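Retry 2 of 3 after timeout on previous attempt. Resubmitting structure tokens to design endpoint.
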């Protein structure tokens, strides 16, 4: 599967953005509020290799990243890798066969133009996101 982005849980998007700009990233999509999950999201893309990252900041409770940040003492850290798929249900089935368990039902992601996404977890593989392109 092709990587769509690598997500970072961050306490403050503006502060994190400055660090990633220093590392060669540019804002690809400005900060959006995801009111369904109580988070802010910003996408950045590396100017040389095209790698896309997603900065994810808590924005109210409950949200999916506060606990992760607490476990990391508030430090920004890679949160998940998102993979592209043309058939979300098929990809979920293949992931299940390889030990990944769905964390929720597929749902549209406003930050990815309403594309359906699914989050899965494996003890050995961590959390991944699948996005239907």
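Retry 2 succeeded. Sequence:
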């Amino acid at each position: 599967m092709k990587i769509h982005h690598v997500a970072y849980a961050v306490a403050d998007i503006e502060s994190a953005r400055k660090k990633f700009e220093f590392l060669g990233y540019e804002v690809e999509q400005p900060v959006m509020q995801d009111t369904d999950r109580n988070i802010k999201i910003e996408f950045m893309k590396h100017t040389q290799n095209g790698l896309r990252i997603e900065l994810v900041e808590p924005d109210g409770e409950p949200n999916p990243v506060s606990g992760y940040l607490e476990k990391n003492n508030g430090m920004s850290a890679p949160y998940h890798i998102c993979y592209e798929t043309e058939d979300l249900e098929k990809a979920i089935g293949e992931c299940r066969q390889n030990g990944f368990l769905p964390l929720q039902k597929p749902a549209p992601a406003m930050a990815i133009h309403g594309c359906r996404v699914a989050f899965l977890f494996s003890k050995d593989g961590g959390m991944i996101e699948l996005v239907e392109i």
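Attempt log closed. The first strand starts at residue 3 and ends at 9.
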